[in-house]
Amino acid sequence: MDEGIKVALFDLGNVLIDFDYRICAQRISHFCSKSPEDIIKLFFASEITASFERGKVSPSDFFSAIKEMLDLRLSYEAFVPIWNEVFFLSAKNRGVFNLVNNLRQYYKVALLSNTNALHYEYLKKHFPVFNVFNKVFVSCELGLVKPDKLIYQKTLEALEAPAGSVFYTDDREDLIKSARELGMKAFIFNGVRQLKADLLSAGLTVN
Question: Which terminus of the chain has fewer Cβ atoms in its 10 Å neighbourhood, N or C?
Answer without folding.
Answer: C
